[in-house]
Amino acid sequence: MAVSEIERVLSEMSPDPIVSASLFILLGLVLILPFKVKKVEENLEPFFLVMGIIVVTVTHFALVTYAEIPMWTPTLVTHALESPIGIVKIGEIPVLGIFQVVLIVGLVIYFFNKPIYLALLKLMKKIGMRAFAFVFITLFGLISSLISVIVSSVILAEIALAMPLERKKKLEFIVIACFSLGLGAALTPVGEPLSTIAVRKLAGPPYYADFFYLLNLLGIYIIPGVVVLGIYGAYRIGNAKIEKLEVPEYTESIRAVVMRAVRVYVFVTALELLGAGCVPIIVWYISHVPPVALYWVNIISAFLDNATLTAAEIGPSLTEFQIKSALMGLLISGGMLIPGNIPNIVAAARMKITMSEWARLGVPIGFVLMVVYFVILHVPELF
Question: Residue 52 and residue 186: Cα distance in Å, rounded?
């Protein structure tokens, strides 16, 4: 049975306290354990996969018991397994899945790392580190909606690796850039799954969403935000100068390149399962939250697939203000933690960033952005 049909069935059921409590506890463990247990933090991908399987199983037994409807179906399993590798078409243009992009770019860097890194270093030296950081964060944040956030995030990871900066500065650059990519990718349905689903669900009356719908709806908020992130990234990078064009030593083996792509594959599959298994929480509780509160409730997309939340929350019955509020909450909070967005997952895998390292930078930035956009979006509505 399709997830949309399961959502319909759940909407006709009364919330089950045992199932709800179980799912909330599991979500709590998903959020807390990576920060408290080092083994979990070091093995984030298999941990999320195990938790995704458990969450789907809990929902499966609830549905079978109360409505004789299975959650574990060949369709769900196939979708979860194909999601990281599925080749989709945007018009007539085939777009590779995240697994292939990470693997192919990884192999290209493996064989041609010296000339690629040298070219990047020459550009950094010519225009300066601050200018480079601003141009990259701003430009790629905006074009990620056209070349896809997957391609943009893989390029980001390799650029960060080549930058002649200490690790702390590299992490700041990556986190800020990932916020930019996550925001910018939502401007068109090509950019990321969230925008694709939103446009599809609003394609009919009264919105008749087309390719430019999200650009027209959110562009006035997202584009200035991307520019501000570019400025902030340039400020945080500082005015480091490149005295010598020293290409960083490349130490990865082909096995490491392949395993990184596999880890990304596992992570995306795990998030698909986790999102599907949490459908009862979304249908019974989140979908009924008022717009102002929904903006803040959507902070859970920091560790839960925001495409699933978009599918459950966004629909033609919402007002334009509700749509803007829900989507902006999802997009901003997605940068706070590694599982929140595709760029975070790719960059963290390449740079071996832990959940704690990401949270120390991502949570404060995300919270400030949430407050600023809350004022921009909601304060005018109060008067």
Answer: 25
